[in-house]
């Protein structure tokens, strides 16, 4: 991997990121509810030596409305649990990183810590985690533990909404802190397995986390021994200053959504400023730019595909990320330009699966390799190794020797 090489990830969601993807996908509409479908997608991504894949999830049904069901019957509804999909993929892959998304708003951090640590063990050190908040009343209604006002996108700047979202992000920050402490609560050498002495573990190397905050009080220790990466990779999706600060405090990787190369450079500068403001002591965030991609053999065919998808959807599809419709070689040129602007890599969102994924793996990746921007294969190691992130020592082991 050369100095100029970039990181490349793919974001998997159902039959694709376009709401009408299921209408054009060659895969059966029920395929995302099968293990084989996800195994094939993961194998395709790994054959191209992608750094990692992410799996989307939420606690409510997909909807075109900002909050609550929309009543539409012409779009995919329903999904499998992202963390369990990752666990199913793990033993059938060898190199690619696996990052499921989970909600911190309605899930106990202890359970999250156990699930991701388990994934790191069964994958041999390839696990990651994308914490996300659940700001919708529809999601809260499934649990009945808290009342969240209905989300009104026209009133996002009102003090009550700003306070609510700020609290949810702060809660997510505490959740990540708890999860990281639990991952550290077993020292690397806590498991002894000494048959003659009858000692399986050294209890002095298991530690209470003793976290008490506004939202959580967690004693610890974990029930899962320390995993291969020590701490699996934490990723965050961020669109503005508050999420950038969250990522700077709590994450290893941040997914951002530039609109062009100049915007990409400005976002990278803002992320670096956020790191400085929060006093980040970890290695710098790996900044990956998100793009929704619609690819074909010619630009005209790609635009026709996009137009057909929008027609089936009934309106033009918009996204938080920029949408690129064109040929793989032009996309490779765009990635090279944005990479020069300062982003470390990209997370590509295929509009239709598996078609746009195979276009990425079989055409975009070779084009990037021709430009000297992407490696020819895997060199082994953990996901942290691949991203150039050091393996952190357990904070409790460091404290014990200080």
From TrEMBL:
Pfam families: Bac_luciferase. Residues 33-306 form the Luciferase-like domain. Keywords: Flavoprotein, FMN, Monooxygenase, Oxidoreductase. The keyword Oxidoreductase applies. Belongs to the NtaA/SnaA/DszA monooxygenase family. One of its GO terms (molecular function) is monooxygenase activity. This is Alkanesulfonate monooxygenase SsuD/methylene tetrahydromethanopterin reductase-like flavin-dependent oxidoreductase (Luciferase family).
């Amino acid at each position: 991997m050369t100095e100029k090489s970039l990181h490349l990830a793919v974001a998997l969601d159902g039959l694709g990121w376009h709401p009408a993807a299921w209408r054009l996908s060659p895969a059966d509409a029920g395929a995302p509810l099968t293990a084989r479908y996800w195994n094939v997608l993961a194998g395709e991504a790994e054959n191209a030596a992608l750094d990692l894949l992410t799996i989307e999830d939420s606690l409510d049904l997909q909807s075109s409305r900002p909050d609550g069901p929309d009543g539409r019957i012409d779009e995919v509804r329903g999904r499998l649990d992202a963390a369990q999909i990752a666990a199913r993929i793990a033993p059938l892959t060898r190199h690619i990183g696996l990052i499921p998304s989970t909600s911190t708003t309605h899930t106990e951090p202890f359970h999250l810590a156990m699930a991701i640590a388990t994934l790191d063990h069964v994958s041999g050190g390839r696990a990651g985690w994308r914490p996300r908040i659940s700001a919708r009343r529809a999601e809260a209604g499934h649990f009945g533990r808290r009342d969240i006002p209905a989300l009104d996108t026209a009133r996002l700047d009102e003090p009550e909404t700003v306070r609510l979202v700020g609290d949810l992000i702060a809660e997510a920050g505490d959740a990540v802190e708890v999860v990281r402490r639990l991952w550290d609560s077993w020292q690397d050498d806590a498991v002894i397995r000494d048959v003659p002495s009858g000692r399986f573990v050294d209890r002095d190397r298991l530690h209470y986390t003793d976290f008490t905050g506004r939202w959580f009080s967690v004693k610890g220790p974990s029930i899962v021994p320390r995993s291969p990466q020590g701490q699996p990779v934490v990723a965050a999706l961020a669109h503005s200053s508050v999420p950038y600060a969250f990522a700077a405090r709590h994450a290893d990787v941040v997914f951002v959504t530039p609109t062009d190369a100049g915007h990409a450079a400005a976002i990278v500068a803002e992320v670096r400023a956020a790191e400085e403001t929060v006093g980040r002591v970890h290695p710098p965030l790996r900044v990956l730019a998100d793009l929704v991609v619609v690819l074909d053999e010619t630009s005209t065919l790609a635009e026709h595909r996009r137009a057909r998808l929008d027609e089936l959807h009934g309106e033009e599809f918009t996204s938080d990320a920029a949408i690129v419709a064109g040929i793989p070689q032009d996309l490779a040129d765009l990635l090279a330009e944005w990479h020069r602007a300062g982003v470390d890599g990209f997370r590509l969102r295929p509009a239709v699966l598996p078609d746009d994924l195979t276009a990425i793996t079989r055409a975009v990746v070779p084009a990037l390799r021709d430009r000297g921007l992407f490696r020819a294969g895997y060199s082994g190691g953990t996901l942290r190794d691949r991203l150039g992130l050091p393996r952190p020592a357990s904070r409790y082991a460091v404290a014990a020797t200080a």
